[in-house]
Structure formats: structure tokens, C-alpha cells
Amino acid sequence: MAGCCAALAAFLFEYDTPRIVLIRSRKVGLMNRAVQLLILAYVIGWVFVWEKGYQETDSVVSSVTTKAKGVTVTNTSTLGFRVWDVADYVIPAQEENSLFIMTNMIITMNQTQGFCPELPDKTTVCKSDANCVAGSSGTHSNGIATGRCVLFNGTVKTCEVAAWCPVEDDTHVPKPAFLKAAENFTLLVKNNIWYPKFNFSKRNILPNITTTYLKSCIYDAVTDPFCPIFRLGKIVERAGHSFQDMAIEGGIMGIQINWDCNLDRTSSLCLPRYSFRRLDTRDVDHNVSPGYNFRFWWLPVMLGVPWLIDPSLPSLPPLSHGLLPFGHISVCPLLRGHQSYGIRAHTNPVRAHLNSFCLQKPCFPTSISHSQVPGGYKSWVTCSTQESQSSGKDQGTRVRFATSLRQLNLS
């Protein structure tokens, strides 16, 4: 027992230290200090300063909304004198994740369903009915062949088709663009961000922006870098392209909103940065099927008659802009959110159907899907007074649009 107590006392009340050997050598001393400096530089410079390893991060939650403004006039032999405002060139008025602005169009007036000659090309030009196959329809056909060879003009015959007549001729795209004045239209972008872990929120309309300033400012990277109103021509120019060239056949533009926020500092330094790029690839040497477009069937309202808007069968010519916001925020213990946002493009062309029943009674159009239209009916509308289906002759104007403005939401 006494031996155990002696051993325990020796363990508790002893202190030992390693022997330190002092080596006086410049080479060994410099090597030692160099290793210490490298470790110190890595910990302070890389881990703390550059990577901010002591901070927490969070993903951004965000929303983007846009509002276009601008008015212009045209005077053509086809449409006559016409004023164009937002209600005319933003199609449709509201669209998820995108904004389409028309800048150019090919118009086919007064089309009706019937029989007419197809546009002449190497597959449709004929000399007799034997050259036309009834029921055939090629990839680029405007209708279904009837098997007859008919006159297209005084010298050329083509195969007859059952189609919307007259068929569309898109071989001549208007140059310059029909709405070339769209270069000076403006776009207000509202971007709201929120980092839920730190309950930090902000928007791109900064606290120091007044109503007076917002009514007069236009974004400029040097003079007005935080103005949320953009001129369409400037957006394309900042991406290195010509608006007037793009407006002819359409294109897709991206607006990137980058938030790089460090909440170790004051929130007033958390500011949006804008950049622009063209999203559709444009190769001058391989420019097959350029631009962005769709077809649109339009029946004007006449004599106060209501008409139905029914989204149907898009065929895509537009200019597009995308909003691609990115979030980066940091706080001590901080958050740094990195998130990129993809583009989802969709288009809702509009078809209008007129129902003769509604000429006698009040009618409030109701949207229906293409699959709900009964077979054999050329026109369809649902009236509020009673359910009614009526066949009639559709007549309207098909328009092919070129150029959209595409908004891509942050989510």
C-alpha cells in the first residue's frame, strides 16, 4: 500500500520538460521561419480572408418582375396607320418566367379555311394532277394536298392544299424591322431577394432611389449603375450586338443580376450588379434557322363583338431577354449563397374564335383547351347566357412575330 501511494505521489508532483537544442544556423533558421510564414499565410489569407471559412452561408430566395413601356406608330399599305403600345407588342400580357416583345412580323391577311395553291418550291411545283399525291403533307407544308394541280399565278402551277388560305409566304422578312423603334422601349426590372437563415431581404430599387429619379433614369454602367430601368437597345449593345440586326429575325438576351453581399459589413454595401449577354448562339458562318419566332392567329374585334382568346399550337421569329440573378451573401457567422437560375422559355400564341350565337346575346368568352373543341366545328366559344356551340367561317389575320424579351425568374 505504501508503494502505491509513493508511486501516485511521484506522478502527481513531478514536472518534466523536453530539452531544447538551440541551433545557430542561417539555413535552418530561414527554413523554419519560411514554414511558419506559409502556415500563417494559408490560415489567415486563404481560410479567413479569401474563402471566409469562419462564415456561414445560405441560399437565396428571389423573385423578378418586369414592366415594359414605349409607344410607336406605323403606316403601311397592309395595316394602314396604327399606334403600337404595350398592349399590342407584349404578347401575351402576362407570361410565366418570360416577357415577349414583338419587333418584326410577317402578315398574311384575311385567311380562311379552304383550298388554295401551295407556295412553289421543288416539291410543290407541278404540271398535272399526276404530280400531286392526295393526302400528303411535307414537313414544311402549309396544308394537306388534295391531289389537284392548280395555277399559283399566270405561269406557275402548284399542288392544291386544304389549309388556311392564302398560305403564308415567309420568304421575305421585313428589313428593317417592322417595329424598329422598339430599340428605345424601356424595361423596368424589379428584383427582390431574401436569405431566410439570416432573415435578410433587399431589392434592386435601393432605398436612396426616389420617385422622381425613377421616372427619369435609364441604366448606364458609369453614370446610373443602379437604375432598374433598361433601354432595350442598350441591353443588346452591352452584350456586343446590334439591336436593329437582332430585331429582324429575333433573339434571346439574358440580364444577369449579381448580388455579392458580405454582412460583416453594412447592408448598404449589398448592391446589385447587372451584366448582359446574348443567349441564343449566333454563328455567322453557320447561321441556319437564326433568331426566335412564332406564328399568331389574330381576329380583330369588330362592331363590339366579343372574341375568345384560346392559346393553341405555337410555331415559333422574337428578341428575348433573360433575367439570370445570382446571389452571394456572407455574414459573421456568415452566409454566402451561390445559386444560378435556368431559362425556361415557353410561348402562348393566341387564337381567336368568333361564335355567331354571341351576336344576339351578351357573351363572355371562356378559355378552353384545343382538345375541348368538338370535331367539325371551326369556331367555338362558351357564352354566359347558355351553353352553345356554333359552326361558322373563321376569318382573320395570321401574323408571324419576330423578337421577344424574355424574363427568367429567380427561384
From TrEMBL:
Report a single Gene Ontology molecular function.
extracellularly ATP-gated monoatomic cation channel activity
Q: Which residues cross the membrane?
A: 34-50
**Predominant cellular place of this UniProt entry's protein:** membrane
GO CC annotation, single: postsynapse
**Subcellular location(s) of the protein:** Cell membrane; Lysosome membrane; Membrane
How this chain sits in the membrane, per its record, is: Multi-pass membrane protein
Question: Which keywords does UniProt give here?
Answer: ATP-binding, Cell membrane, Disulfide bond, Glycoprotein, Ion channel, Ion transport, Ligand-gated ion channel, Lysosome, Membrane, Nucleotide-binding, Receptor, Transmembrane, Transmembrane helix, Transport
Q: Name one Pfam family in it.
A: P2X_receptor
Give the record's GO biological process terms: calcium ion transmembrane transport; response to ATP
Give the family, as the similarity comment puts it.
Answer: Belongs to the P2X receptor family.
Q: What is this protein called in UniProt?
A: P2X purinoceptor
Name of the coding gene: P2RX4
